Description:
Blueprint: E1 2-3, H1 13-36, H2 40-61, E2 64-65, H3 72-76, E3 97-98, E4 103-105, E5 117-124, H4 127-137, E6 142-146, H5 152-158, H6 164-180, E7 186-195, H7 199-209, E8 215-219, E9 225-226, E10 239-240, H8 245-255, E11 260-265, H9 276-287, E12 292-293, E13 304-310, E14 313-318, H10 323-328, H11 333-345, E15 377-378
Parallel strand pairs: 5-6, 5-7, 7-8, 8-11, 11-14
Antiparallel strand pairs: 1-2, 3-4, 3-15, 4-6, 9-10, 12-13, 13-14
Amino acid sequence: MVRPPSSSYPAGPKRWSAWGLGGLVAMAFVGSGATALRSVTTYALLEVAVPKIAAARALSQRPVLTAQALTPELRHRGYNECNPYDFVGLGPYAPYRKLRVGRIAIPQKGGHTKDFGYDVLVHFHGQTAMRMTLAQVARGVAFVGIDLGIASGPYSDAFSSPEAWPALKRSIESALKAQSGDPRAHIRHIALTAWSAGYGAVNEILKHDKAGIDAVVLLDGLHAAWDPTHTSHTTGNDVTAGPIAPTLEFAKMALKGEKIFVFSHSEVDPVTYPSTRLTADMLMRELGLKRHPVANSRSDKFGLYGTVDTRGVHIWSYHGGDKPAHCTHLTHIDRAVRDILEPAWHTPAMDRNVPPTPAPKLGPAPAPSSQGEPEARNCASEPAAKSG
């Protein structure tokens, strides 16, 4: 499903830089008239800038993919925010391949550079619901899905060892080589994404490899700690980074334009530990940023009411303090990937005209193995899941 491009979605740092040179040259051309054209330097700049302007214009005019929304009929049949309908299955992606832990979906055709570089998302928690949105809107990223439990502990434990993340990356590249049939296949960019409890894995990986991660996307999942010197637990000033210090440091790198950091939060209050809202307030305090209000946000009970979009930092505030509100954040992977990551990375397009792959019925995710690197294998033998 497509809609016209919207300027309301911020582009990543690299996309802005692509506009920068062209915009400056165009302003110089308009402001200085024919005299400027006598300069050899100006001719050279225009020769470089014109293709950039054309490429940027073509990018802005390309139809934007959107995920289909639940209809009243589907809701009547029992589908809802926490039980989403599967509109496309795996769509343009090949059947899942099993990894050392989790599974990877790779575009059937395209989605890589000439030297077989792939942009990859590694998503923790709620992988099936996330996939139902991503498969409809992605331009060409490959994605990994990992589910390990219902609390952050199992995710933290699985990646507490410094060797766990490099082993998973090797497994991912093995799968990319197997799917593409080309030994040059490799990870070009990589993002860690998580919903809810999955942030535990992201925070652990950032302890060991902040430099190797290009982007982090946290969907209503990041919980700091109460400041032990405060007796009140009501505002972001009562919260300290504590155990999520690695994530805060990554956000600081994003504020410098070195990384991309996306964090969405709801109004759900877990009471016994800081909410994602209070954690977001703490992050903004530490980063020196302020939330900007969104007009008419009350028209949607789960609507966006505040934003921070500064350099590589994007913090999005949404209404809703119940379970459905929490579940809706899985769908915000569309805005993060389609409007932030892929434009910033210039992700190569995959072919969406290939025969669609139905979604498999997934069993439990395989546990991490301590014995070497298993061969990546195709999950095509898994039976297709019904979407009706």
